[in-house]
Amino acid sequence: MDRATPRKAYPSDLTDDQWELLGPLLPPAKAGGRPRTTDLREVVNTILYVNRTSCQWAYLPHDLPPKSTVYDYFAAWRDDGTWPRVMDTLREVVRECHEPEKEATPSAGSVDSQTVKTTELGGVAGYDGGKKIKGRKRTIAVDTLGLILFVAVTAGNVDDAKAAEPVLGHLTGERFPRLEVLWADSKYHNHDLNAWLAMRPWLRWRLEVVSRPPGSKGFVLLPKRWVVERTFGWLGRARRLSKDYEVRTDSSEAMIRVRGIQMMLNRLCPKPAPEFKCTCLAPLPTRVRSTAGRSGSIAAWTSLHVPAVGISSSVSPNSKPRSRR
User: Fold this and answer.
1) Is residue 317 packed enough to be buried (19+ CB in 10 Å), middle (13-18) or exposed (0-12)?
2) Whether 68 contacts 60, CB under 8 Å
3) 231 and 146 in contact (C-beta within 8 Å)?
4) What is the predicted pLDDT for the residue at 163?
């Protein structure tokens, strides 16, 4: 496809307002040498496309930049720390814009882990005996709005408390001066973890375990800790994160950060809702709209206009389905 010809936008593409926020946060072109000719906005759009759809790099649509170009930028920004810097900057902007009474840095947060399956590509993996899953463990810390503070990916067989050390060690007083408490579940009530925290006085916050009510069974919505569970749900909407498709764990962490950046951009500059046009049904006549409470009029109109959908006019709208034996 001719690059000069505007392509049709994908749902994952950045809007103009979102690019105005994100563009200045990306590294500039290196000094000297050949001038940059790559459109960074298209590079970011392609990374978001892969993250949202789980498309393989080699199967990118032809109207997007090639894999050799996009993956080079993705890997470079992974290695030089661009993704964490962008995520930290946007998180502060989101907190100041959507919650004006809140400060740029959080005073409380939550930590939790999630184990997902891996693929046959290889890389670090292990069997999580608690979740009965062979794969990798994602440990994230979030603030009270559900925005990611830090993420670490380890093998699935690593203990939850041990896997949390890279995340907790990042939450220093220099980076988060207002952080006072971090909520966690009972799997972080660990003597080794407590000893590890006691040896690091520069971590000024305290770890508070939120336990399940005695005698409870199944899923229980725990107070304060449900925020991090919701964030895992947000992350799961990106198909690239349904499993861990990456060979390297730092690539897995970068994909989680890409999803976090996209969510924050959508908060700051929401995309317009897509227009939905239903052509299968004719508009309700005025007489039927005025008698919408009468089931007979609705049933009569439906029997005339929706025969192809399989709705029979002989079935009363008040009839109950026949039980199967």
Assistant:
1) exposed
2) no
3) yes
4) 95
Please state, in angstroms and rounded to a whole number, the distance separating the CA atoms of residues 135 and 230. Answer: 21
Q: What is the predicted pLDDT for the residue at 19?
A: 96
Cα 270-273-278 angle, rounded to 5 deg: 175
Stretch (H or E) spanning 6: none
Predicted local distance difference test score (pLDDT) of residue 236: 94
Q: Which one, of 151, 123, 142, 112, lies nearest residue 253 by Cα? A: 151
Do residues 303 and 313 touch, judged by C-beta distance below 8 A? yes
- CA dist 28 and 114 (Å) reads 35
**pLDDT tens column, 185-208:** 888 999 999 999 999 999 999 999
Instruction: Give residue 60's identity as a one-letter amino acid code.
Output: L
CA distance 249 to 138: 10
DSSP characters over 164-193 = THHHHHH--TTT-TT--EEEE-GGG--HHH
- Which residues face 244 on adjacent strands? 118
Distance CA 250, CA 151 (A): 10
pLDDT at 304: 53
Structure tokens at 238: 């990106």
- In three-state secondary structure terms, 142 is strand
Stretches in the chain below the pLDDT threshold 70: 1-5, 219, 274-325
Question: At 232, which helix (H) or strand (E)?
Answer: helix 226-236
Q: How far is CA 210 from CA 72, 152, 226, in A?
A: 43, 22, 11
Length of the chain, in residues: 325
Do the strands 126-128 and 133-143 form a parallel or antiparallel pair, or are they unpaired?
Answer: antiparallel
Q: Which residue has the tokens 């292990």?
A: 126
pLDDT digits (tens, 9 = 90+) for 78-99: 999 999 999 999 999 999 887 7
